[in-house]
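Researcher: I'm preparing a figure for a lab meeting and need a structural model of a single chain. I don't have an experimental structure, so a prediction will have to do for now. The sequence is pasted below. Please return the structure as tokens so I can convert it later.
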Amino acid sequence: MKKSVKRFVSTLLIAMLAVTAAGCGSNGAENTSGNAGAQTGAAGESKLKEKLVLRMGHVMTETEPSHQAALDFAKKVEERTNGDIKVQIFPNATLGSDPEVMEQAKLGNPMIGYTNPTYLVDMAKDLGIIGGPFLVKDWDELKKIIDSDFMKEQEEILKNNDLRVLAFNWYFGSRHLITNKEIKTPEDLNGVKVRSQPSPLVEETIKAMGANPTPMAWAEVYPGIEQKVIEGAEAPFSTLYSSKMYEVATSISKTGHFSQVNGWVMSEKIFSSLPQEYQEILLEEAKAAGEKMSQETIKQSDEFEQKLVAEGVKIVEPDIEAFREATKVVYKKLEDSWTPGLYDRIQKILGN
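Model: Understood. Here is the structure written out token by token.
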């Protein structure tokens, strides 16, 4: 019941924003409908018929590195377009879940959605492998995939599905398990209900690690653990801290099973309607903010770990090799859902 009410509220808010957008566009003050259109003007003059407002939504809190990077992106875009494009940031799932915001962008609304590869597999099936368990050791290896021809091919597929990738280099960090019991081996997770993203790869990974995957929106995880609907979750240190998961769970196992990278997508229709100069600004600033955020994520990982320890959380060093071996089956189970030979292709990109 709670989930349906929340979805209704999110949908209602989006509808209200759309109505507001239409009103603004009618008087020429601001256009949030996505039909800004291009015009030729002298230096310093507006290059759009009407100013464009893009709503950028994500589920993270204001203390997350990703939110700070998004604010920086918005500032740079507005400065470089002389105010023609304004980006408004909505954290804490204000506009809905990440998939919901992404879907609104896909439908042609002036919104920018924060997404990870698992949310895009319905359109670009091979993208899912990027989030595979123990696929890479660190950000440097993951970046090899992000900068490869493979990724360019996936972006083209998304473009044909009405989504423009602004950047896919926002490193979210390594994900670890948080529960109320010490987890050292896959056997310790036997029967434990762990929150999962609604993705076959994530669900199969959690299952292979020994737990029972339970799909759930991130905003519902804290009360879910508190009310014992689930018994654990997995996320980077920064997210576990900013979401105050330490208030409802006392132990973190440093499995590092996923090395997650996220990206920002918007409507291809809106993007292609903009002057080329503005298209380049959006792409350049999204990637620049991603590079800065990625380095900040790496730098702050140890700091957030220590903050969690200060809040009373016990950090457990698990048997990584046991979890690595246990999750190898995931690639075998899902190989039929990817292009034949994809796993080997990714290994070549990584130099293995």
